[in-house]
Amino acid sequence: MEFAIGGRGPGGWAGAFQAASRKRRAARVAAAVVAGVAAVGGATYYWTQQTECDAESSTQLESSVNNDVQALIERQRERSVALTAASPERSLREHRSTGASVRSGTSRSGTSQSAAIAISRAPSMAALKSIPSDAASGRSSVRVDRKFFSQLWRFIRIIVPSIRSREFWVVLGIGVTLVIRTRLDIWVSDNAGDIVKAIVARDREAFMRKCVRDISIMMFPMSFVNNILKLQISLLRVMARKRLTLYFHELYLSQLTFYKATNLDNRIQNIDQLVTQDVEKFCTTLVNLYSNVSKPLLDVVLFSSRLARSLGAKGPAVMIGYFILTSAILRKLQPPFGRLTADEQRLEGDFRLCHSRLIMHAEEIAFYGGGQREKFFINGTFEKLLQHMQRIFMARFRIGLVDSILVKYLATIVGYCVVSMPIFFTSGFVRTLLAPLGGQKLIDQNKQADAEDAALVAEMYTRNSRLLISLSAAIGRLVLSGKELTRLAGYTARVGELDSVLGDLRRSQAADSHSSLDAIAKLGLEDVELRAAMVPGRLVDNVDFVRFEHVNIVSPDRILLAKDLTFEVPPGTNVLITGPNGCGKSSLFRVLCGLWPLYGGTLYRPPRSRMFYIPQRPYLAIGSLREQVIYPMTTLEMRSRNIRDEDLQKLLDEVHLGELSRRRNGWDNVCDWSDVLSGGEKQRLAMARLFFHRPQYAVLDECTSAVSLDVEGYLYTHARELGITLITVSHRPSLWRFHEKLLRFDGHGGWTFTDIKPEDIPQLTGINGESVAA
Fold it and tell me: Where is the composition biased (Low complexity) (predicted)?
């Protein structure tokens, strides 16, 4: 008697149930094997990425510290040149005071004052130590909190200003490309399973179709997607850096913010590194985090969805659970390698600075016979570095033991256990279902069918192993993205501080209020005179004369250089300023030009466009000879005003530099003019620049100290002929005859403003204008 259900008898029904059971068991076996392999692979991936991330962090920190040290060395070298140019007889003494604060009685005038300020701001050994440690503390103390997300959102709005911007469409394109790439990864896994199935089943036609035809068709779109994603990420990095860098350039290079940030405000150091390096690192980390988080999230969602349709959740759950547990244990036991690396780089910087100081001050050390003392100090610094490196090696040894046990051996045991369970422990549920239909006989038949269904097992194993290992890698990247997020928080904090300070300085009178009102609040009760002197003054910059009315000159380090300064410089009246070093001569110019805060009374002056300043060491810009003469005007502006090169040639002839334009490439010659020209040629070129602009007032700060007396006399005479009113700082008595007024500082806050009488000039200069008295 036939018992039929759906057209089948008991044998047909049992065969169908047997086939379905084979597929389920094959799926479970493949899932178990893949889960074990994926657990090992996932943990190994985490450790590999963790090691690479630590190495990358160490490399970036080492590069940052090396750049900091190199910047300090360059600043010390520039300070050395400045000191030598300002006063050769004092350079040796000043060099020995590197890093020391300038006392109240030291130089504050002219280039010597600039050098003194440079010394007070130049980082010493302690300052160098604070750079890496601060960086480390910044990285360890930053938090992924509301402030971080607020700053990050502000910068994202700067980088992506609107949905119509190019940056927005690039961001959107990256997201679409990531989705396509994940779908292609799933196709690759499915296709790999089909290829293995065809190989095991010896199906040549299926193999040629899946391996040769399908891959040949898909390799072009897959290659295109992979490379277009790299291109989009690279473009977004460049576009983000461009937006953010131009934003900071606008803040930093307008309204004298660059001067205020480096000379009047001490809230941030190494602005050059922040603008050039930290902004780039912030943009790179932000874009990388976007791609490194978006892709794993898509992978987790799509891979899990694909696996759920074929395996269920048991295999991935075992793999994910072990992976998360291993990651948590490793993270809990891992030493603070970030802090240890920061300390190592700090000690490396100390050791490097010791040798740099030895090179810079070799002559002074040789004079003192301090070779043994320096060797003792350098060896001590090197010994500290070696001891710290040994501590790092021992820490890595201890964590390496735990890593090897968890990642390699224990993971292997767990994987083998997961693999063996379906083999050694047959499912009781299957036994119960098959017992009424033949019991042990059907089980034996099922074993034979398993051998026949090896192709199905191989297919499912290959496909699902790829998906599960890719899923473990995606989870690993998500876990590691937490470290990237912390690194991004560190860069965001540094860039956010730069944005805050530059924004404060750019706002109206921000620098004055910060450097004066805050400074007044910090003064003690005993500084009554200084507190009274640091009352903000009033500026009137729409007149055609210069007048100081009860103005107090106070340095940024709160030293009263001159008090109740009152005098007037009408057009056509040249004023000579003299006095001892540190009395406030150059400080007067800084107040006049708006570089230092105005205190006390009222300052009347013409607009800045009608004033010109020439320091002792003229600034020579990057560019051609033409651009040196017309600076800060550009060549396009010069052409628009119908100014020809012949006009510039006349200016060079007047300052005895006509041969410069006749050299190779003429006016278009581009070179490092600071190295090409001598000191006297630089000063004469600066005077040609003055004659080109022909301002109403010119402030000359020892600007002809390297020029011969006869050429100097001609330059001052020609400036008077052009109608330029001169305010000059100089110790040369030969210049008295070109001025009508004398402003003399006594070095104790006092001053006098008198006429220069003609009968006094012969006592100071000879017949040919040569100095006979100092």
Answer: 98-113
The pLDDT of residue 465 is 65
Of 304, 327, 326, 324, which is closest to residue 316 (Cα–Cα)?
A: 304
Q: Tell me, what's the pLDDT at 195? A: 82
Residues 6+ apart with CB under 8 A from 22: 446, 449, 450, 453, 456
- Judged against a pLDDT cut of 50, whether residue 671 lies above it is answered with yes
pLDDT at 43 (0 to 100): 45
Nearest alpha carbon to residue 40 among 342, 364, 409: 409
Q: What is the pLDDT of residue 209?
A: 83
CB-based contact 561:587 (threshold 8 Å):
yes
pLDDT tens digit string along 478-510?
766 777 787 788 888 888 888 888 888 877 444
Q: Answer for the pair 86, 106: CB distance below 8 angstroms, yes or no.
A: no
Q: What average pLDDT score do residues 244-250 get?
A: 92
Beta strands in 374-474 (DSSP E): none
Nearest residue to 599 (alpha-carbon basis) of 541, 534, 548, 549: 534
User: Which pLDDT value is given to residue 65?
Assistant: 44
| Residue type, position 68, single letter | D
Does the pLDDT of residue 686 top 60, yes or no? yes
Q: Which CATH superfamily is domain 10-506 in?
A: ABC transporter type 1, transmembrane domain (1.20.1560.10)
Q: CATH number of the domain at 529-620+677-764, out of 3.40.225.10, 3.40.50.300, 3.30.950.30, 3.90.1150.10?
A: 3.40.50.300
Helical pair 337-360 and 125-141, crossing angle rounded to 10 deg: 160
Confidence of residue 138 (pLDDT cuts 50, 70, 90): very low
Cα separation, 103 vs 116, in Å, equals: 9
Query: Shortest CA distance to 139 belongs to which of 493, 399, 529?
Result: 493
Give the phi and the psi of residue 235 in degrees, each rounded to 5. -65, -40
Q: What is the pLDDT of residues 158-187, one digit of tens each?
A: 999 999 999 999 999 998 998 888 888 878
Residue 758 CA to residue 762 CA, distance in Å, equals 8
CB 167 within 8 A of CB 160: yes
pLDDT digits (tens, 9 = 90+) for 41-86: 444 444 444 444 444 444 454 455 455 545 544 544 444 444 344 3
Phi, psi of 3 (to 5 degrees): -105, 105
Give the Cα separation of 576 and 727 in Å (integer). Answer: 6
| Identical fold, 10-506 and 529-620+677-764 | no
Residue ranges of the domains in the chain? 10-506, 529-620+677-764
Average pLDDT over residues 194-199: 78
* 3-state SS class at 643: coil
Q: Are 735 and 756 in contact (CB under 8 A)?
A: no
Nearby residues of 301 by Cβ (< 8 Å), 6 or more positions away: none
Which burial class, exposed, middle or buried, applies to 269 when counting CB atoms under 10 A from its CB (0-12, 13-18, 19+)?
middle
